[in-house]
Design brief:
10 helices; mainly alpha
Length: 290
């Protein structure tokens, strides 16, 4: 990631406020569209997040082979969604074929481009992108029936609360610092987990007694912890993408080609992608675990 000789050229407010705002929009999209359009709305919401992540990831990380990377990422998103909605009994295992073919497509796309600069970094970035867009598809499984739909709503609310709370706390008090170069602190992590647990308890009681208070708290806290940690990792990527040599004056914003809102897509959707399969696993485990 960033070295000690680099610092972010992005102001702290631009680092946190767009991400907090976009988290609210993402939650409204994933929780609201299924209420309006049913399964079609859920598929549309997931696909929008996937395609947004593909575009933001390619722009922010600087993967070589821009058009090819976009094409491979978009194809992987569509293939992952089809693998989870077309079978009569869909399962996460259906994504294995998508991941295998996606890995092959990334390798071929990177090997055939000219010149092959930054080959290893671009291969790694492409493979991680395939995994992230596939993981987002787990929201489709989470909302398969009435009970699953309620799990999906509670999960998205908990993750959204964790992301918003973490960014707002770190905007004013990023202490103790997790790393010198990244404006995130332990306080934000703790508040994120507490916010996710609290919102899950409230959400579970609101949607018809889905879980007891203890189970809902565990559900929300686990998802919030995953979201908070992955958000910190996404912030490392953002800081590296906007870094300027130490000692040089900052322009006070991201580089011209990187809007803070583009960076915010990465900061919000990547944690959502990490939480989707975790929420699906907890849906199965929690009712018998506690």
């Amino acid at each position: 990631m960033t070295s000690s000789a680099l610092r972010s050229g992005l102001p702290v407010r631009a680092h946190h406020l767009p991400a907090a705002g976009l988290a609210v929009v993402a939650v409204a999209l994933v929780a609201g569209l299924p209420e309006l359009l049913g399964d079609l709305g859920r598929l549309a919401a997931v696909l929008v997040l996937q395609l947004g992540l593909v575009l933001a990831w390619v722009l922010v990380t600087g993967i070589q082979g821009f058009a090819g990377s976009l094409a491979v990422g978009a194809a992987a998103a569509v293939a992952a969604d089809l693998a989870l909605v077309l079978p009569e009994r869909p399962a996460l295992g259906g994504l294995l074929v998508v991941f295998g073919l996606g890995f092959l497509a990334v390798v071929l796309q990177q090997m055939f481009r000219r010149p092959r600069t930054d080959l290893v970094a671009s291969l790694a970035g492409g493979v991680l992108l395939i995994g992230a867009v596939g993981a987002l598809g787990a929201f489709l499984l989470l909302g398969q029936d009435d009970t699953g739909e309620r799990w999906a709503v509670v999960a998205v609310l908990a993750v959204g609360a964790a992301l918003v709370a973490g960014h707002l706390v770190d905007l004013v008090f990023p202490r103790p610092r997790l790393a010198d170069d990244v404006p995130r602190g332990v306080s934000g992590l703790i508040v994120s987990v507490l916010a996710g647990a609290a919102v899950a308890v409230l959400g579970a009681s609101t949607v018809g007694g889905l879980l007891g208070a203890g189970r809902a708290a565990v559900f929300g806290a686990v998802l919030a912890a995953v979201a908070a940690l992955v958000a910190v990792a996404a912030d490392y990527v953002v800081v590296e993408a906007t870094a300027v040599p130490d000692g040089e004056p900052s322009a006070g914003a991201a580089p011209p080609e990187l809007s803070p809102w583009t960076l915010a897509v990465l900061q919000v959707v990547l944690p959502l992608a990490a939480c989707a399969p975790v929420a699906y696993a907890l849906q199965t485990a929690l009712p018998t675990a506690l």
